[in-house]
Amino acid sequence: TREDKGVQTIPDSKRKGGSTSTTRVLQLTRVELLQWKLGKELGEEIARIIPLRFSNSSILLYENYWNYFKQYVANNIPCIINKKFVLHYLLYLFHKPLAPNTIMVHKAALSDPLNYCFNISTSDKEFKDLIMYFRKVRPIKKKLPPQWKVSLVLKYLKSPLFLQNNSISLSCLFMKCIFLIALASGSRVSEISALRRDINHL
Q1: Above 60 in pLDDT, residue 10?
Q2: What DSSP character marks residue 123?
Q3: CB distance 38 to 51 below 8 Å
Q4: Which letter, b or e, does each residue of 114-134 get, where b requires 16 or more Cβ atoms within 10 Å of its Cβ?
Q5: Is the dihedral of CA 172, 177, 183, 188 positive or negative?
Q6: At 129, phi and psi to the nearest 5?
Q7: For residue 180, what are the CA distances in angstroms to 39, 157, 186, 192?
Q8: pLDDT at residue 136 in the model
Q9: How much is the average pLDDT of 8-28?
Q10: Secondary structure (H, E, C), 63-91
Q11: Which is higher by pLDDT, 11 or 163?
């Protein structure tokens, strides 16, 4: 078993409810681990609610990133999950190399399990300083929007390729329609995504 390979149990003396073993981390999903730990301390209803407070998309993303952490734990057995171990995990992600913003999401995914199960706060200064270093070494590159002139595009739409809606190809008509809708929306993606094609909204 994994216990025979040197998996160690982490004392959790500052919290009620005993300890959390590395084996349990490897066996359970992120939500299951939180519900198990919180259920022992706060009751089943609270334990069911707290891990599911995020949107479904965030829960799925955090679960995926939790699996990254579980794989790192499995690759480093025997290990003790403490602040030093987690800091080295974030450094491992940086060397992969991941962008600082992506590492921040990984850290967010670990925040609840580490806090509730191991009494580790990812808001501690060590974590902030490490992320600050990541941002210094690998700063975010600003992407400027492409330079273009709407007058040139409108002039192009008046060319024979696009001019006659009843005779141009369907693909050209589609591109013309999409561009004019985007132009009318003022680049507000939310307005475009909210458009409906059913008969009552055409």
Answers
A1: no
A2: T
A3: yes
A4: bbbbbbbebeeeebeebbeeb
A5: negative
A6: -65, -40
A7: 55, 10, 10, 11
A8: 95
A9: 61
A10: HHHHHHHHHHHHHCCCCCCCHHHHHHHHH
A11: 163
